[in-house]
Automatic annotation (TrEMBL):
Major subcellular location class: membrane
Transmembrane segments: 63-85, 91-112, 154-178, 184-208, 215-239, 259-277, 289-313, 333-356, 376-396, 402-422, 443-465
GO molecular function: L-amino acid transmembrane transporter activity
Region span, Disordered: 1-27
Bias type Basic and acidic residues, positions: 1-15
Subcellular location: Membrane
Keyword annotations from UniProtKB, A to Z: Membrane, Transmembrane, Transmembrane helix
Designated name of the protein: Proton-coupled amino acid transporter 4
Record's signal peptide: none
Species the sequence originates in: Papilio machaon
Membrane topology qualifier: Multi-pass membrane protein
Phylogenetic classification of the source organism: Eukaryota, Metazoa, Ecdysozoa, Arthropoda, Hexapoda
């Protein structure tokens, strides 16, 4: 009996220490219906909370996060809204702006929600946009789990190329804005556009040495104040002698709607900035929800887009140009000052957009075996990226058409298609809703993204052909 008892105790001791004949199933806060077979997961006292494990050296406040998102979404694209309304009509434009804003808001919402839940599953404090996309496949259906690494790399490189392209266009916009104004008031100067682009190098290199989003908050706040000044000047001229609304089309031809859609989506999208902002919030749980940081920012964005687009089209009608500032009187100092102020806004926006490709570079730098010369490497890499963007802008001052083509491909894909795919893949084996409505909803979003991709690419190609033939005047106006 004693031997038998010792044998039983020995057998019991040989089992894993966390083995229990009665399994206690814990509830996963990030995704309640998922069950991990890992013994470690079963033995945890409480589910993994990624927010408790985030160690951000310089976290952003809730208000600071809203300012960053507003700066990311309120680019010069808002000045192109009257031209967008020209392609939709007043009524269709208002409805379309609200619907496009809702779709952009929703796709970011599902992406961030998936990221937060994947952090729980993967037991990681935070994930970037690319990491979220890769993890959705890695923890998704078994047949596509091996795709995770490839998807992550694809999104990473797409983000880098997209936002680097935006940086190049920003340089052209800043240089050309100063040239147009100074050519009028200092005619003896008459510098080339290449020279103006080159002169932006030192100021851009300096501001891009700021490594933490928290320290960019004052710049974002100042830029938001300046862009309000530009809007005020623009709206002043828009509302002077405003013609009757009845003189404008309520609904334009359906064939023109894709042009409206592509303009609105490309202007609103700030998909690459969203995850860095959420990851560096002091209270990331306030990013989603009602009202939430993201919803608050997008309500402001949609409202401003609708106002500028509606009344800008009412004032200038079919004569409205790609950027409404180009319709302002060129012989008035106040109108001309709007160009310079907008150039300063773009200067500060450059630093925020620069954060996206730099985030990818920083992840690559983390793989180094030593942190020696960290500051030297950071300064050098940042200087090189800025220098290359300035050099490309100076070499190709008509780069806008090429970049808009790349933006049409990447922003419609990154902002709409990829979040819809990530949401579908992540929820495929979990919960696709009643009648699989999530698949239906995401399929519709995918179709919209393809329409935006094709229409935006088509317009860019036509513009490039006209530019090569000498029949297209380039105003260096940016659609972001």
């Amino acid at each position: 009996m004693a031997d038998r008892k010792m044998t039983q105790e020995k057998s019991k001791d040989s089992l894993p220490e966390n083995f229990n004949s009665t399994a206690n199933l814990t509830t996963n806060a990030g995704f309640p219906s998922s069950l991990s077979i890992s013994s470690k997961d079963i033995n945890d006292d409480k589910p993994y909370n990624p927010f408790e494990h985030r160690e951000v050296e310089h976290p952003n406040s809730t208000f600071g996060s809203i300012l960053h998102l507003l700066k990311a979404c309120l680019g010069t694209g808002i000045l192109a809204m009257p031209a967008a309304f020209k392609n939709s009509g007043l009524v269709a434009g208002l409805i379309g702006t609200i619907l496009a804003g809702f779709i952009c808001t929703h796709t970011v919402h599902v992406l961030v929600r998936a990221s937060q839940e994947l952090c729980v599953i993967a037991k990681k404090p935070s994930m970037s946009f690319a990491e979220t996309c890769g993890a959705a496949f890695t923890y998704g259906p078994k047949s596509i789990r091996s795709w995770g690494g490839a998807i992550k790399k694809l999104v990473d490189y797409s983000l880098f190329l997209t936002y680097f392209s935006v940086l190049c266009v920003y340089v052209v916009f800043i240089g050309s804005s100063f040239k147009e104004v100074l050519d009028v008031y200092v005619p003896s100067l008459q510098l080339s556009i290449q020279t103006y682009c080159a002169l932006t190098l030192v100021p851009l290199v300096l501001i891009c040495q700021i490594r933490n989003l928290k320290y960019l908050v004052p710049f974002s706040a100042f830029a938001n104040v300046l862009i309000v000044v530009v809007f005020a000047i623009t709206l002043y001229y828009v509302f002077v002698d405003l013609p009757p609304v009845t003189e404008r089309e309520m609904v334009s031809k359906v064939s023109q709607w894709p042009l409206f859609l592509s303009t609105v989506i490309f202007a609103m999208e700030g998909i690459g900035v969203v995850m860095p902002v959420e990851n560096e919030m002091a209270k990331p749980q306030k990013f989603l929800g009602c009202p939430g940081v993201w919803n608050t920012a997008m309500i402001i964005v949609i409202t401003l887009y609708g106002i500028v687009g509606f009344f800008g089209y009412v004032q200038y009608g079919d004569d409205v140009k790609g950027s409404i500032t180009l319709n302002l009187p060129q012989d008035e100092i106040v109108a001309q000052s709007a160009k310079l102020i907008m150039a300063i806004v773009i200067y500060f926006s450059y630093a925020l957009q620069f954060y996206v490709p730099m985030e990818m570079v920083n992840r690559m730098l983390q793989n180094r075996s030593s942190n020696k010369f960290e500051n030297v490497i950071q300064i050098s890499v940042r200087t090189i990226i800025v220098t290359v963007s300035v050099a490309i802008a100076a070499a190709f001052p008509n780069l806008e058409l090429v970049i808009s083509f790349a933006g049409a491909i990447f922003f419609s894909t990154l902002g709409l298609l990829i979040p819809a795919v990530v949401d579908t893949v992540f929820l495929w084996d979990r919960n696709l809703g009643k009648f699989n409505y999530i698949v239906i909803k995401n399929t519709i979003i995918g179709i919209i993204s393809i329409i935006a991709l094709v229409s935006g690419s088509y317009v860019s190609i036509i513009g490039m052909i006209e530019d090569l033939s000498g029949g297209h005047e380039v105003h260096y106006n940016v659609t972001r």
